[in-house]
Amino acid sequence: MNANENQVKEEKNLNKLINNKIFVTIVTYFSIISPFVYYLTTDAHFFLGRELSTLFSAFYYSLMIICAIFAAVYSIALAYGKKLHKAFSGTFFGVFIFTCLSLLFNIGYAVGFGASWYGYLYYLKIIFPYLLAFVLSFSFLYLIPLFNNGKATVTIAVMIVCIIFLWIAFGQLELKVFKLKESATVFDTGDGYSVVWSANDKSIGWLEYDYLGEHYKIYHDQEGRKVSDSIIHYVKVPYEHLKNNDYTIYVQRVLSNRAYAPRTGKTLSQTISFKGDIGSDFDALILSDTHNITKAVRKKIDVGTPDLLFMLGDFIDELHREEDVSKYLLGLCYDTVKGQVPVIFSRGNHDLHSEMGIRLSTYIGFDETFYQAHYGNYDFTVLDSGAGSPDDEIQLGGLADYEKYRKKQMDWMNGLTNGGNNQILVTHVWYFSEDPDVFATLKQNVERLGLKGILAGHSHKCAFYKDGFQEKSEDYLKLPTVISGGVINLIYRQVQYTKAHFDVNGIDLTGYSTKSKEPLFNERINCD
After folding, report:
1. pTM here?
2. Which domain holds residue 315?
3. How far apart are the first and last CA of the chain?
């Protein structure tokens, strides 16, 4: 067989493939799905730079949509027995190649380098109705010629019903039994306690307790109206009102929030005994970088009986909904300390890498995310390290202004004084800022206040550095530094964490892992 005959045979095989209805149908479905897959993994081109990435993504996305429309028209034409010019067949083969490469690249990126599967699922839920509409529309038009066949009609009807039920199952229809979703967490905000709790549906919430013979009933309200469009509620309480006292949280379901005919439903409550009055010696559990861990993984943490909980940020991969705050922050804190002891919280970079990050503090009752908390013989200066990278980092997309916020924190820190207590710095990103001026001010304040050590997270390890963690720069603060732990295995969600015992003269620190019963380290920060 000569070369010409081989070429003719290959062309016939190619034409046969391109005109095969099953092959064409499969390619078309993939072409329709491809733009939606790209929407989920749209950060795949950030390495090109912000402007170029935006232009390339717009062109790439448009091309995928054009390919999807072309493939759908080509498939429908074949289904109706229409004869098309061979140029259409060649173009369709090009669509097939482009779609395969696109899917391989985007899915490969998601698996190998993607930011967060939790984020992908969140955005999938948003676009799912649109994806379903396109798939059903194409399926209906493509399968119309088969409607004169009884068996085919039944098959089509069953397929459509199954897809609709899949849609419902994916969360479009939400039928709930009203309940307290994640019970109370008591955050120290620097000027009092913020008691935060949530339900699983929109509700109003209030807190009740007795103090010095007086009964207090405090609603979560804003400008004279009880907050009724949220599942999360908080009220602020003076320190002395809550220490060694019982408090009761309430939620009442809001069935309808119409302008002139709102309706409320079932009321639920829970009473909790709070400790809070901490002496000169106390124990603490230090968590960070827990990233969406489930209740099953939380149960593997040997909590013990801490008097204080440090949650040093990155409780989630991406923050998108109130439910995320409820499940992964409030749920984590409640599962560990049951709303019975104070929580010192430092915001992590993942906690604000999304459109909801800016509202996190308002959900949990913080006026600012930097403050100072006082327990025993210790002053804990809590700083918000922001995104953990310069504001011009490509992945921040030009939306960051964290250096300004870090400078504001330094202005505040300039006003702090050492009242004789042991001074400890608490933050998520241990190096706080890469800005030379901000770092210089931080270093001056550390020396002026006589800080004894640093509690931090971010690096997903449980480790102690006697002379400071110098991974980023040899000029970093040469203070004893605890990197408190985090998720270390993305498949099995193994977690490392730290326990601390504070006494007048220092801090005993022990690192742990849910994988092993043996401690990772035993160290001490001397404060005398």
Report:
1. 0.81
2. 275-526
3. 92
